[in-house]
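Sorry, explain these tokens?

***
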Amino acid sequence: MKKVATGFVPVIAVSRRAAKPLQRQIYDAYRAAIIRRSLRSGQQIPSTRSLACELGISRIPALNAYAQLLAEGYFEARTGAGTFVSSSLPDQESPVPLESRQLHGMSSGPRPIARRAARLPAFKPAPWLYGWGAFSVGQVAFDKFPLQIWSHLVARHSRIVNPSALHFSDPMGSRKFRETIATYLRTVRGVNCEAEQIMVVSGSQQALEISARALLDPGDQVWVEEPGYRLTRDVLLMAGCQLIPVPVDEEGLDVTEGIQRCDSARAAYVTPSHQFPLGATMSASRRLQLLKWAQVAGAWIIEDDYDSEYRYVNMPIPSLQGLDRDSRVIYIGTFSKTLFPSLRLGYMVVPLDLVDRFLAVRHAMDIYPPYLYQSVLTDFIRQGHFSRHIRRTKVMYRDRRSKLVEAIRKQFGSALPILGAQAGMHLVVMLPKGRRDTELAGKAAREKLWLWPLSPCYSGKSPRQGLILGFGSATEREIPAAVRHLEALLKA
């Protein structure tokens, strides 16, 4: 049985006034905790000295109780390691299945939940979401990340800690980090911003949540891309918004159609640099049209600058926010897509007159962001490691994209049209009529091939059927075999 060393002292209440002796109270408390599985097999038990100190009693009752529990087989002693819950427990009841506990809860009387939570479907992780390898979406080439440099910076900032960093910090984020981000955005993305406008967040999802709370009221109508990012819809639904799906074509969101469907919408959410999932880039005319609509309607634009660093066919497209002369755009970006997903570090650029409102919302949510990775990433960027990493991986992802496009055309010809291969770390293939992408993705996941279905990205009743294929973590050598695997699944 594996040792589970926690160092935790279990919740044991003893009373000197009780008729029952202290050693019996300790014995009964431990036995009950083991039977109801609050304490599990292999879990380490605190020493008698620690327990006696915690309870404020003599050590002798603890010693006697432990001796009895050892004799009856509830505890086992391991030389040099300590005392543990035994792996073979007398009178141990089977754990209550989760389903039974849920049914018990359902029969225990009213259990109201918030209407905003009821707007969302129950979360059940799809089998293709967390797989590793071809063609999982959102994965990067972890083996190409400069881990040694990053580890060195993490170790240095962990070792040399200013005591002030352990106290409450700026809700907007580290000033030094925000200045670094502002320089990067002005230089690389054409964003009009100063450090005072930048708020550090845990990723684009939190940025959208803060934006929704600061700008939108229940019942407000919001344009969303169709198809689009499902988690965006979830955040807006939680805020009580009415979603207005606006179709996307090769020029990005169709602004004219959006105006026809709802010209009085309060906001529009767009991914203009690299639309998710279809990969389109919003044209200049559409960008200007969208900005004009926002100014006339008094609406807000939430720009998620998704995957903007990786373009393979032409030069990077400047941000939509850089064209905004009326401060109507809230700009969102993240480092999780370019470095590694678990980093959970992003940013948003807020119009100056809204900073205090966004700050109030952020402070109510989680007060301020953790400091360590802000300090690490500040040095990582200022020392040039970030820009070098982007340059190296851009070449590599371009080669992987080309290999994937070549392999698809070789195996399928024109049977699987390809969309959105000009940028980012994924592309989309459309399936022949009659194919169901979710069924195919489920079957593929059982064979360790991670195909993301396109249809869940639609909110309408007649979604297009296709597959989103990520190539960030699939090497050029692995891609042809993965495409042949896909062909075999389609034939089957």
About this structure: The domain at 1-92 is CATH 1.10.10.10 (Arc Repressor Mutant, subunit A). The first strand starts at residue 44 and ends at 45.
